[in-house]
Design brief:
Layout: E1 14-20, E2 24-33, E3 36-46, E4 53-54, E5 57-58, H1 60-76, E6 85-89, H2 91-95, H3 100-110, E7 114-116, H4 119-131, E8 140-146, E9 151-157, E10 160-167, H5 171-178, H6 186-201, H7 204-207, E11 214-218, H8 219-231, E12 239-240, H9 241-251, H10 273-287, E13 291-295, H11 299-311, H12 316-327, H13 332-353, H14 357-369, H15 381-391, H16 399-410, H17 426-449, E14 458-462, E15 465-469, H18 474-477, H19 479-493, E16 498-501
Parallel strand pairs: 1-6, 6-7, 8-11, 11-13, 15-16
Antiparallel strand pairs: 1-2, 2-3, 4-5, 8-9, 9-10, 12-13, 14-15
Helix pairs in contact: 1-3, 4-11, 5-6, 5-10, 6-10, 8-10, 9-10, 13-14, 13-17, 14-16, 14-17, 15-16, 16-17, 17-19
Length: 502
């Protein structure tokens, strides 16, 4: 069922990842050497996209800051093939109702799409980046990543995450909500600390110290704290609760962010270090952490390693689809029949309809999962399938990919509602309409192929029409298929496609 494995990436291949964080944007370009990645370029800019969230919408200023940053990143990316670049958006873009106002122009600037990922997918990628930076030992570890808008928690062993969680608390959002105007008071600090304790209390029973052997911190906030503690002689490079208490005491001697002067603190971290320290202290107390070491591996490195898998030996999305089929007892034979028909129609239409490899991947996954909703009920199973694909945690998939899979599986049968595509960007609606037509026709033909071999048929297309040519008398001998195709003409007309057959 899975796509055929590809050859390993040759040594010298360049890959790139961009992490569109709520506080900072990070770019890494890496060269593949002996199956491992070696960073050759790294760039980071403080954008504070999350600080521009107002009533769930990104402000024009925040969007402008982000796009200007990406314009600078784009110059470094000229040496990397677009298919070897992956851009991921995290909490600020997850929360933004107007994210397309940023992601669409960002795609034009970078020449590749922006994948907005769910919190648990972010956690999986963080763990992947951290695991590759640590010794390959068998003991369990808790990895924590305090970002600008969310904090990720992962318990895992070696390269395999076992538990994933993402909470809505970060150094940018807490700075905005708890330290109005940058003012530092004991009351403000206690408010941030208490808020973090409350948020973390929901996962305490699964992530407390009894469930892991060591704790590792990832990314900017925790690395910044470790650097401050070391530079001030409060620790040996690790983060301890005693050292954190000294940092808390020192921070509370200042009245405003602008006054903070600490050895080891960069200018970019000055405005968020207070909230970051409050969150870290709360995590130590509620999870029973005695000591935390930090890792240079983070989300962006995890994206690179995940991209290596996609381009060579293993795409985690295939594992996810296989697991879904097993969990919901999907019929593999039927799925393979639908995929074969999708492949036939895709091959015949891809040139005229300008479809690409990403479109085939969506059809491939939709074909294999289109019946998983039957595990809930045969009635309206397509709606149940769409619900599962839209709302489940699917490792490897972005929000956009899950939404598009939901559209293809919900629209596989019955009437096509006017609302099905309306939330998609205008630039994508036509392409999704083409994929939906392929999916619907393939599902119609599956009922024939479960009983007999579907004959070879001709396919002719242009921008707004699709013509199918069957062997003489075949449609007359299959009146049910003929009736379905006649009904399908009116459905595809709603997608702007004229269906003809003979």
């Amino acid at each position: 069922m899975a796509a055929a494995p590809q050859d390993p990436l040759p040594d010298g291949s360049l890959l790139a990842a961009i992490d569109l964080g709520s506080n900072s944007f990070h770019l890494i370009i890496a060269k593949i050497e002996h199956g491992e990645m070696r960073p050759v370029e790294a760039l980071a800019e403080k954008v504070q996209l999350g600080a521009g969230l107002e009533n769930g919408r990104l402000s024009p200023d925040a969007i402008e800051r982000g796009l200007e940053c990406l314009s600078r990143f784009a110059q470094l990316l000229e040496s990397v093939e677009p298919k070897r670049i992956r851009v991921v958006g995290t909490n600020a873009l997850r929360q933004a109702k107007n994210r397309l106002d940023f992601t669409l122009p960002a795609r034009d600037i970078l020449g590749t799409r922006v994948d907005v990922i769910y919190g648990r997918e972010e956690a999986r990628l963080v763990y992947l980046g951290v695991a590759h930076s640590l010794a390959d030992d068998a003991q369990s570890r808790l990895v924590i990543d305090i970002g600008g808008g969310s904090t990720e928690f992962i318990i895992g062993e070696r390269f395999e995450p076992q538990q994933l969680e993402s909470l809505q608390m970060g150094c940018v959002s807490f700075t905005r909500d708890c330290f109005l105007g940058g003012e530092i008071t004991a009351t403000n600090y206690q408010r941030a600390y208490n808020h973090a304790r409350v948020e973390t209390s929901h996962i305490r029973h699964r992530y407390s110290a009894s469930h892991w052997a060591e704790c590792v911190g990832s990314s900017g906030t925790l690395n910044a704290i470790a650097s401050i503690l070391l530079q001030n002689g409060w620790s040996d490079g690790n983060i301890t609760r005693k050292a954190l208490s000294k940092l808390e005491h020192k921070i509370l001697t200042f009245n405003h962010f602008d006054e903070i002067e600490l050895d080891g603190l960069s200018e970019n971290r000055r405005s968020v270090i207070t909230a970051g320290t409050a969150i870290t202290s709360a995590l130590f107390d509620i999870l029973g952490i005695d000591q935390m070491r930090t890792s240079k591996g983070a989300l962006r490195e995890g994206v690179i390693y995940d991209l290596m898998g996609r381009l060579s030996h293993e795409d985690v999305r295939e594992r996810t689809i296989n697991a879904l089929m097993q969990r919901y007892a999907a019929d593999e034979n039927t799925a393979e029949i639908v995929e074969r028909r999708c492949r036939t129609l895709f091959s015949a239409t891809r040139g005229s309809w300008k479809l690409g490899n990403e479109d085939w991947e969506l059809l491939h996954w939709a074909a294999h999962t289109h019946e998983i909703g039957m595990a809930i009920s045969h009635k309206h199973f397509n709606r149940h399938t769409a619900y599962l694909l839209r709302n489940a945690d699917l490792p490897g998939f972005s929000q956009e990919e899950q939404e598009q899979l939901a559209i293809l599986t919900q629209g596989q049968r019955g009437k096509i509602s006017a609302e099905l595509l309306e939330d998609q960007p205008k630039s994508l609606q036509r392409r999704l309409g083409y994929l939906l037509a392929i999916m619907r026709l393939s599902v119609h033909f599956k009922y024939v192929e479960t009983l007999e071999q579907l004959p070879e048929f001709a396919v002719q297309v242009d921008d707004s029409s699709l013509a199918l040519g069957f062997p003489e008398t075949w449609l007359e001998d299959h009146p049910l298929t003929l009736s379905e195709l006649e009904q399908e003409q009116s459905h595809l007309a709603k997608l702007g496609l004229e269906l003809n057959f003979s």
